[in-house]
Amino acid sequence: MSRKTLLMAVCAFTFLAGAAMAREYDPVANPKAVVVRKQARFTVLTPRVIRMEWSRDGAFEDHATLVFVNRRVPVPAYTVSEKDGWLRIETSNLHLVYRLDSGPFSADNLRIDFLMDGRWKTWKPGMPNRGNLQDRKSVV
What we know:
The protein is of the alpha+beta class.
C-alpha cells in the first residue's frame, strides 16, 4: 500500500469515526422529550431526570454538559397537563409542577415530588442539600 493510499485511508477512517461519534453524542434532545412554555423549557431525559431551563428571552442552550453529553436518548414515558395556570410533567418517578408565566424557578413556583426508597419526597429550589455526599470521601 502506498503512503498516499494509507494517508487517504486514515483520513477517511477519521472522518467516518468522527461522524459516527457525532451521531452517538448529540447534545440536542429528541423534540418529543421537550416541553416548552414561553420562557421555561423542560427536557425529560429519564424517568428520574428532567432538565429545567428558564430564559428571559426564550432562547435555550443545547450544549453538552458533564451529566448529559448525549441527550438524544430514548424518550421515557411521561405526561404533560395544565390546570389553573400550573404545568405538570409526570414520569414514573417524578412529578414536576411549575406555575406558568411566573418567572425564574423558585420555591414559590416550582416543586418536584420524587420517589426515593419507596416513598414520595418533595424538593423545591433553595432547599438545603442535607446529607448530600455525607459520609462519602471525595476522590481527587
